[in-house]
Specification:
CATH topology of the largest domain: UDP-n-acetylglucosamine1-carboxyvinyl-transferase, Chain
Number of domains: 3
CATH architecture of the largest domain: Alpha-beta prism
Helix content: 25-40%
CATH superfamily of the largest domain: Enolpyruvate transferase domain
Number of strands: 33
Strand order of the largest sheet: 27-31-26-32-33
Shape: elongated
CATH class of the largest domain: Alpha Beta
Number of helices: 21
Length: 679
């Protein structure tokens, strides 16, 4: 199955409930590197599972760290104690590290490896090779490190050429580094220089104004946790105390990501609460977080949000409406400030965000990207080198259904998903939704758990057709491409029969009420590759002849059939549904915006079924299978309840001469033609 190339968000109306945040990317990758540099082993708990942490972990393995998984959210790292040790299969002369688009890996590893000795090449994706690193390399080169550019000067990829060991370093004068491009340069030096501070103080001086100061506070707090003593004079001079040596704290806990909290704080400020609820609870981070982005709360409150909280949770609900336009210096919340640009869509005037020059050297030029995408939605924007002004659409009529280009930037995708709460009730398309895996792989699932939409706004694609037409394979592939839920209605009677057997229920009329209650609450989940019943894979178990016969018994019970109809309606969940069966478009979802009736000749279907059975070691003939299929078609078309037939507005698709890829492409083409942003 292929990853969804886009995700269509229907209009979202309310938000409420509870969301558990993932670990902080900034804290995760810092802790991983500090644990790798330390003596001893460190148990890292609540680690973020994301693209950026994956590349850091793989790099540390290549350098010789022993990494032992302990659970889904914890691992143990045995550190190097400030020395590199190549993995057994690594080149003895050169280690090549691929770091994706993770600035929190590229910058600190460059500094650490330059002070540890060895030959290294550090590279990433094309965008990483456009993100500046020259100021850090200049600082390290001034110390005496030998670092070469392998492409454009000032940018990765890099080669560190210390095959004969670290050259003599010039530590008698302060290490100078610019602070006005990225705080990651200073963070990299603060994390690396303790490696050479055994006998003397090492001083770093910042040239120019330091941006993103809260991220430096995170770095300093973690250095202290790993045994490093330091002093700070304002934000211009930092001293690593002589005798510093990394020591494992034993256990290091990763706080939940305050930047990720900003999207849900914003959602709680924008959307009303569902009836009977009292707002949105955000767990994993609290008002006393060490992360600077927690100050996003101050900005959200200024715009009208009601935010309260404790040490490990926040509670948000809408206050002033519309939101209040603000003017804000965002140096203290550079990443979370992007969420304010999305909130500005719902403000009562022009919101101005200043001191955001660092946006231009992130995963993309975020100022230019925001202007382009907010304008698509109907906003008016003005931007400069370090500011952005956003004026919301003048009225509901000025909102537009936009396809948001995300530039392979996780924050663009997450911020602008908030546009789905627009008052014009228009859908929003997020291109390449998988880019959120950089820091929050489960973001959209989390959003759909707490956001609500009107049922009629949640799209359904129905794929009906006769037995062996390939509708199940087609539905699973279309659902995967669109990021939608999947419903295999034909399996529900089999699942009911299987569940009844497990519960010890007889499949007869006297137990009809009990069977109906069981059917109404079947804990079933359809995945592209399997069917789960109460978390257990039952894909093969429901295909036995015995279960098939039991399913026929179950299907004769009217109250069970009614319960399963209600259950099928419950599959209509955010962001959308692809349902396959024989009466999806005629009975279950008659108002679905796209209905496909998939068929193929009986000869073609018999040949396909023959291949399947032969592959399983079941002997039969094509002629026998064809006769069985034709007889079943006749029964299905003549039955009194929901006979097999296309819906009046269904599109007919004969797959006899088509591959599965061709049938999928045809359905997706039809779906695109029905979307308001298809052009």
């Amino acid at each position: 199955m292929r990853r969804a190339t886009f995700l269509d968000l229907p209009p979202l109306r309310t938000v409420g409930g509870t969301v558990q945040l993932p670990g902080s990317k900034s804290i995760s990758n810092r802790i991983l590197l500090l644990a790798a540099l330390s003596e001893g082993s460190t148990e890292v708990r609540d680690l973020l599972d994301s693209d950026d942490t994956h590349v850091m972990l793989e790099a540390l393995r290549q350098l010789g760290c022993i990494i032992e998984p302990l659970s889904a959210r914890a691992l143990r790292i045995t550190g190097l104690g400030g020395r590199t040790a190549h993995a057994p299969d690594a080149s003895p002369a050169l280690t090549r590290l691929f770091l994706g688009n993770a600035g929190t890996a590229m910058r600190p590893l460059t500094a650490a490896l330059a002070l540890m000795g060895g030959e290294f090449e550090l590279s990433g994706v094309p965008r990483m090779h456009e993100r500046p690193i020259g100021d850090l390399v200049d600082a390290l080169s001034a110390l005496g490190c030998r670092i070469h550019y392998l492409g454009t000067p000032g940018f990765p990829p890099l080669r560190i050429a210390h095959g004969g060991g670290v050259p003599p370093l010039r530590l008698d004068a302060p290490v100078l580094v610019r602070g006005d491009v990225s705080s990651q340069f200073l963070t990299a030096l603060l994390m690396a220089l303790p490696l050479v501070a055994q006998t003397r103080d090492v001083v770093i001086e910042v040239v120019g104004e330091l941006i993103s100061k809260p991220y430096i506070e995170i770095t300093l707090a973690l250095l202290a946790r790993f045994g490093i003593r330091w002093q700070r004079e304002g934000w211009q001079r930092f001293t690593i105390t002589a005798g510093s040596r990394y020591q494992s704290p034993g256990v290091a806990h990763v706080e939940a990501d305050a930047s990720s909290a900003s999207y849900f704080i914003a959602a709680g400020a924008i959307a009303a609460c569902p009836e009977g609820q009292n707002g949105l609870e955000i767990r994993g981070v609290g008002l006393n977080s060490i992360q600077g982005d927690i100050r996003f709360i101050e900005a959200a409150r200024a715009m009208g949000a009601q935010v309260t909280g404790g040490d490990n949770s926040l509670h948000v609900r809408r206050g002033a409406w519309p939101l209040k336009a603000i003017t804000l210096d965002c140096n203290h919340i550079p990443d979370a400030a992007m969420t304010l640009a999305a909130m500005a869509l719902y403000a009562d005037g022009t919101t101005e965000l200043t001191n955001i020059a660092s946006w231009r050297v992130k995963e993309t030029d975020r100022i230019a990207a925001m202007v382009a995408e907010l304008t698509k939605l109907g906003a008016t924007c003005e931007a400069g080198n370090d500011f952005l002004r956003v004026t919301p659409p003048a009225s509901n009529a000025h909102w537009r259904a936009a396809s948001i280009h995300t530039y392979d930037d996780h924050r663009m995708a997450m911020c602008l998903s908030l546009a789905a709460f627009n008052p014009a009730r228009l859908p929003v398309r997020i291109e390449d939704p998988g880019c959120v895996a950089k820091t929050y792989p489960g973001y959209f699932d989390a959003l759909f758990q707490v956001a609500q939409a009107d049922p009629e706004d949640i799209p359904v694609i129905c794929i009906d057709g006769p037995t062996a037409s390939g509708k199940g394979t087609l539905a699973a592939e279309v659902a995967a491409r669109l990021g939608y839920h999947l419903l295999d209605s034909g399996a529900l009677y089999r699942l009911t029969a299987l569940a009844a057997g497990t519960a010890g229920l007889a499949l007869d009329a006297p137990r009809e009420d009990a069977l109906a209650r069981l059917a109404a609450t079947l804990p079933v989940r359809f995945l592209p590759e399997c069917i789960l019943l109460d978390g257990r894979d039952v894909t093969q178990a429901i295909r036995t002849e015995e279960v098939g016969m039991q399913a026929s018994q179950v299907s004769q019970l009217p109250r069970v059939r009614a319960a399963l109809v209600a259950l099928q309606h419950g599959f209509r969940r955010l962001p959308g549904l692809v349902a396959d069966g024989r009466d999806m478009g005629t009975v279950i979802f008659p108002q679905a915006p796209l209905k496909v009736y998939l068929t193929a000749s009986s000869q073609c279907r018999a040949e396909r079924r023959h291949k399947q059975l032969i592959s399983k070691g079941i002997t039969t003939t094509i002629a026998t299978l064809r006769a069985d299929l034709e007889a079943r078609d006749a029964r299905d078309m003549q039955r009194s309840a929901a006979p097999l037939k296309p819906a009046e507005d269904a599109l007919l698709l004969d797959s006899s001469e088509l591959t599965i890829d061709e049938t999928v492409a045809r359905v997706l083409q039809w779906w695109q033609a029905r979307r308001p942003f298809s052009a």
